[in-house]
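Suppose you are handed only these lines of text.
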Amino acid sequence: MSTTLKLSARHALCVWALLFLGAFGVHAQQPGEQLCGRCKTSGKVPFEVDSDLSVEHEHGPDWAVLYCSYAIESDNMGLDWSVCPRCKTPSVHDAAQLEWDALETEKQAWLTERKRVEKLVDLDDIVYIETTHFGLTWNIPKVKADRKTYRMHDAAHLFAQRLEDFYTDLRVITGLSHEDQMVDKHYLFAFEKGQQAVAVGPAYAGLSHTGTVKRSGGEDQDSVIVTWRNKSESPTDDDFHRSIVHNMVHQITATHRNTNWFPIGELGLIPPWLNDDYGWLDAGIAHWFERRIEGNSETYCFREQEANRRWGSADWRRNVWKGVSSENWPSFAHTISKPTQSLTPRDHQYAWSWVDFLMWRNAGGFGEAMKLAKLEKPTREILPAVFKVSMLAFEEEWAAWVSTQYAPSNKNPEIDPVRLYGEPAEGEDDTRR
Ligand SMILES: [Zn+2]
Ligand SMILES: [Zn+2]
Ligand SMILES: [Zn+2]
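From them, the structure of the protein bound to zinc ion can be written out as follows.
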């Protein structure tokens, strides 16, 4: 039987099953029961949901909003149906009531678990949101974005949606798949004040620090970032967004690990961060995705804070291009042996540029490159295997590329992260949505 025939046979079966259920199943009264006009004998009547809950329906190709404390605590838990009051058909009423009660139990259990954090911080106006890949504990009263002000609930949804969009973008670009993530849910705790982050850090990220703390250890640990709205580090809310994306890149690349990659008894890179053995890749990828947002890159994570001094101007392309023009850049062979925390501010910019060059050669190979890193393959093997360039030829080819692509006179470079991030040109398929 051909695939088409098989499919249509299965389709016919489904249609038949639906007809059967429609006629004799869930929407019908029991023998002897009356019909109910109010709910059309379904047990459910429409419930008008408050307009500020429209954000609960935001979604993408592989994500949706699963829970939101604001919705759960609103009338009727934000559901667009309620149980038919004074229903004439007891059996359908009872079935609807069971469904409503089960939803309530599930949502309240989730909320109780999220609210445990309130034992550590004296706050009662936290918004909790869970989407398919991110959990947000949010207490930043308002943010400015796209020339609008978002109050706490909308701001939390905005940042959740941005994280999901960024993750889709990262997966599409690098070829990294959900199946290869040992952890595919990342928790962000974003507080208004530093002392709140300090109070929550130890319990949720296993660390206490006045800045941002992160944990992404083994399979038995949640991936967590605890941060706060530090205006001296991130003056604008867009800067804050970029720093969250930068940190999330570290979380996602750290948890990119599938036990099936390893022969029995072999563990590969432990813990599966990239920072100790592939610092240039760890920092370079994070900067690349951060810069994709607006062409800026000001984030250094706590591991990199020694590097929180400036090198050159804010224009990284220009800085690197100048270095290449004067044949003065950090040795690739030497720099790739550094852990992330040993990279200087100048190294960070070159690490970003090396990744930028490799993105141009084969962006879709980064998932594979990270897999090889987790298998502890040296960079000199990863380069030819994934990017078709040898260790010996790398610097020369990269420098030649930089001198044309980053030249201030080149107004139309072949790879422009910011341009890529924008909407696709007319007629182009947007595969990111
Ligand atoms: Zn909500
Ligand atoms: Zn009814
Ligand atoms: Zn970083």
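What can we learn from it? The CA atoms of residues 128 and 137 lie 5 Å apart. Residues 36, 38-39, 43, 84, 87-89, 93 surround zinc ion (ligand 2) (CB under 6 Å).
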